[in-house]
Amino acid sequence: MPQYFTGTDYLLSLPIILLTLFALGILLIDLLVPPEWKWLNAVTALIGVAFSAAAVIKIQVAQAPIEHSGRSLQWAFMQSVIMDHFAIYFFYLFLAGAALSILISVRYLEIEHENHGEFYALILFSVVGMMCMASGFDIVLIFIGLELMAISTYVLVGFLRSDRRSNEGALKYLLLGAFSSGIFAYGLSLLYGLTGSTNLLVIGPRLEQYVSLQRHTDPIIILALLTTSTGLLFKIAAVPFHQWLPDAYEGAPTNVTGFMSVAVKAAAWAMLLRIFLWGFYALRPVYVLMLIFVSIATMTAANLAALTQNNLKRLLAYSSIAHVGYMLLGLIAGNNDGIKGILLYLLVYTFMNLGAFAVVTSLRQRNVIGDEIDDIAGLFSRAPTEAVLMLIFLLSLAGIPPLAGFYGKYFIFLSLIETKHYVLASLAVLYAVFGLYYYMRIGNAMFMREATDKSRLPISAAMRVALGITAFATVYIGILPEQFIRTVNWSLGIVQSTPVASLMR
């Protein structure tokens, strides 16, 4: 009699199981504790993240003896789950983003009078969905993970029930997200019809056969590529599928905006890279032309829109869209440095962008929303440490050395030069200058303008921890990047000059 659930299945799903159990536990604890003990929900969530991280480490240690050709491949659930270095790398990113977001949220939820256990449970459930997206090798599992993450995020965006902006942002996000998910599901169904399988192990080689038979221009194949790509590009908020992001970022609680900007975006990129590099790699000559158009449109529209924004969250939203355009350039180049640049970009972006949103979150006080540029005016006189840290995060987002953000752009620009995409490299450098301008608008407000509120800005202990971690990582990665570059190489299984094409097989 076949054994359908093995020890390997259990081990590789342990991080997901633990997060699920802790999320359910938080819902129970929240019913039992009095209002003054609600901080236990955040502590329980952090413990859950720590246990899940320990399980990921356990998987990594267990895989070490079976390394094969510089790459560790372990399958579970009848080859629908793969726990390779790529998935493990993203697991760590998701857990880091979740832990920092929990720290940022503690005081904010108290101020908003919305300190409920459901918030932390939804954070953990969304990370469960992200893990399914990163480790799924079956398009059905990837889609299920996407919907679990998306539904949890819809609720988080509208978590401030009495806030009209939060409700509006959640509704727009829900409607457009459901629409894009429908298009994405249609594209996946076409892939199943073309290849007879939902597993990327089968989809990739069969699409390669179509290419060898000169059938890659078949209208059904093109339609499958376009509809699937539409769903993926919506999730990373690339132009012209970006309309939901500024409204969702502005309406969502600021701590949720920070979480969305790093963890949710990293999960979307994990899914996109998994499908494009493992499933659609044979169609690369077709989709590269589409990505060139999308990348240029994304950098152009986002940078120009950011120039005129006075709301900090909308400005950082358009900044986030612009960074998507830069990362797409790495996928267009498609070589080692291009893919490495994307993964390194996502790593440093987790810290520098979440740090910037942490400072914006700290501005929220009683009767003060704190998300306009005017609200950050004179911040140096009210909270000098936070002002200096915000400047560090902004300079890193602009790609100024020796901060962490420089290396993400460096490898992407290098990959474009290596693949002779000189025009794209020049455009990207030009738009990086635009980025520096609107980031410095915030810096000018903090250091050169008079504060409208002269009172000192109180910062909670949890927020100080989050700011300390993000600032340290932003500076440390920038000064000593070598070990993080090696980690990215490890996540891709790059050994010396192994070409990306061979890694996708």
Describe the structure.
The protein is mostly helical and 505 residues long. It has one domain. Helices cover 75% and strands 1% of the residues. Strands 1-2 form a two-stranded antiparallel ribbon. Strand 1 and strand 2 form a beta hairpin. Helix 3 runs antiparallel to helix 4 and helix 3 runs parallel beside helix 13. The relative contact order is 0.09.
Secondary structure topology:
Blueprint lengths: L6 H26 L6 H25 L11 E2 L4 E2 L2 H28 L4 H19 L3 H19 L6 H32 L4 H13 L6 H17 L8 H8 L2 H26 L4 H23 L5 H22 L2 H27 L16 H4 L1 H14 L7 H14 L3 H27 L12 H19 L2 H11 L7 H4 L2
Antiparallel strand pairs: 1-2
Helix pairs in contact: 1-2, 1-4, 2-3, 2-4, 3-4, 3-10, 3-13, 3-18, 3-19, 4-5, 4-10, 5-6, 5-10, 6-7, 6-8, 6-9, 8-10, 9-10, 9-12, 10-12, 10-13, 11-12, 11-17, 12-13, 12-16, 12-17, 13-15, 13-16, 13-18, 13-19, 15-17, 15-18, 16-17
